[in-house]
Amino acid sequence: MNLDIIHNSPTMEENRAEAYLQLIHTLLNCPNGDEPQILQDNSELLDVEFLETCELVAEKMAHQGGQNGADFLRNLIGQLSQLIDINDGDNSEGENPQEYANFILELLQAEDGSMNTSVIYAMLSQRQYLLNARFSEILEQVLQKLIGGENAQTIESIVSLVEDLTINISNFSGGNRA
After folding, report:
1. CA spacing 20 to 30 A to 155: which of 1, 4, 117, 162?
2. Counting Cβ atoms within 10 Å, is residue 144 exposed (0-12), middle (13-18) or buried (19+)?
3. DSSP string spanning the chain?
4. In 3D, which of 169, 162, 108 has the Cα closest to residue 140?
5. Pick from 57, 144, 150, 142: which is nearest to 107 by CA?
6. Radius of gyration of the chain, Cα coordinates, nearest whole angstrom
7. Dihedral sign, CA of 42, 45, 51, 52?
8. What pLDDT does 120 receive?
9. Taking a C-beta distance cutoff of 8 angstroms, is the pair 120, 110 a contact?
10. Is this model's pTM higher than 0.85 or not?
């Protein structure tokens, strides 16, 4: 057994730190609007350490004159920290609040993309098991987090999306009506 290979190989913590930096780089350089899907695809990296890494990168960017990138990361930190709080909160047995929150964000993104109702219904059909009382609780929490600190026009836009989504959900024949 070659101990040099083990000794010189990066630790899991170093690998995770590198993954955080790669995700930050991807988010800073992706086309506008691709961020939710990138975050969804990398949800296993969304934790407190990722937020701390974002803040360190934002500080460095701000000191180097990259205020737009720093502002983007700090906004992202605010939004994700609220969702991570939802994930760490009340957790009924067998339920994953983050799964609900991610599903809600996907649905809102689909509503925002002005997709037709058949696409929304297909998404709802695939995850009917999430259409229950817990869904409405998490929807309320996500909505409160999304509108917190936003301007009136942004709040109006978010509320309109949620209204459209709730109409589509109420017209959907599956799920738990209660």
Report:
1. 117
2. exposed
3. --HHHHHHSPPHHHHHHHHHHHHHHHHHHSPTT-HHHHHHHTGGG-SHHHHHHHHHHHHHHHHTT-HHHHHHHHHHHHHHHHHHHHHHS---TT--HHHHHHHHHHHHHHHHTT--HHHHHHHHHHTGGG-SHHHHHHHHHHHHHHHTT--HHHHHHHHHHHHHHHHHHHH-SSS---
4. 162
5. 142
6. 19
7. negative
8. 86
9. yes
10. no
As given in the structure block, the two tokens for residue 54 are: 């974002």
Contact partners, residue 133, CB within 8 Å, separation at least 6: 176, 178
* Token code pair at residue 12: 């899991």
Tokens read off for 121:
């219904």
| Rounded-to-integer distance, Cα 26 and Cα 47, Å | 17
pLDDT, averaged in runs of 10, over the chain (178 residues)? 44 81 91 83 83 89 89 83 59 65 84 76 85 84 80 84 87 67
- What the block records as the tokens of 85 is 């709080």
Neighbours of 43 (CB within 10 A): 14
> How many other CB atoms sit within 10 Å of the CB of residue 131?
19
